């Protein structure tokens, strides 16, 4: 892994969902490549850190947390439910609303994750139903399994891409009063954000 200084953007991502959906398992699988057998308690770690390249030459540092106190300073939210537990699916709108009310006026990108896809025989939530909910929340949907590693990398890459797209479109931008996104790129390397700022200054 490269040195901590070798990143261009830092994104904070909050893991959201009921206590039994496997948030810590998914994080451990993604950041350490291991499957956490016991999921009765969340591991007492504030942040997991992972690096990835969103596109060639653009390095992203992810700070991943399950701690509610980080709601306001998160650029992305991974809304998780257990595919074998319908109650956890029905809680998603509550988690989404809770974050939306906390982060105002900042924009947050979401991905909906149906976890424990390896337990297909015990499935209680259909894919089409989950996709419909994701669409209503303006989120993409993906099914994962920390046990088999199915789509684990893809889930985090998808959310990272959605955050980056929000930056490119101007919906989201680094802010000194907000820790959701940090940027080390020089201004000239942020053309779209800079262009939007110039337009606002010129409007009269």
TrEMBL record:
SUPFAM superfamilies: P-loop containing nucleoside triphosphate hydrolases
Keyword Oxidoreductase among record annotations: no
Gene3D superfamilies per record: P-loop containing nucleotide triphosphate hydrolases
Keywords: GTP-binding, Nucleotide-binding
Coiled coil: none
Entries under PROSITE patterns matching the protein: RAB, RAS
InterPro entries: P-loop_NTPase, Rab_GTPases_membrane_traffic, Small_GTP-bd, Small_GTPase
Keyword GTP-binding in record: yes
PANTHER family found in the cross-reference section: DRAB11-RELATED (PTHR47979)
Family: Belongs to the small GTPase superfamily. Rab family.
Protein name: Ras-related protein Rab-42
Organism: Gekko japonicus (Schlegel's Japanese gecko)
């Amino acid at each position: 892994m490269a040195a901590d200084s070798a990143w261009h953007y830092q994104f904070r991502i909050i893991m959201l969902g009921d206590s039994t959906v496997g948030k810590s398992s998914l994080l451990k699988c993604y950041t350490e490549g291991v499957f956490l057998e016991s999921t009765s308690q969340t591991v007492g770690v504030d942040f997991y850190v992972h690096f990835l390249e969103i596109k060639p030459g653009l390095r992203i540092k992810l700070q991943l947390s399950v701690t509610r106190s980080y709601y306001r300073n998160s650029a992305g939210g991974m809304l998780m439910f257990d595919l074998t537990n319908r109650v956890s699916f029905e809680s998603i709108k509550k988690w989404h609303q809770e974050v939306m009310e906390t982060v105002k006026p900042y924009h947050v990108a979401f991905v909906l994750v149906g976890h424990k896809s390896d337990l297909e025989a015990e499935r209680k939530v259909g894919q089409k139903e989950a996709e419909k909910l994701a669409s209503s929340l303006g989120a993409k949907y993906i099914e994962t399994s920390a046990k088999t590693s199915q789509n684990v990398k893809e889930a985090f890459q998808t959310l990272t891409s959605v955050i980056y797209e929000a930056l490119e479109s101007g919906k989201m931008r680094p802010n000194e009063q907000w820790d959701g996104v940090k940027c080390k790129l020089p201004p000239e390397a942020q053309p779209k954000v800079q262009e939007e700022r110039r337009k606002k200054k010129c409007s009269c």
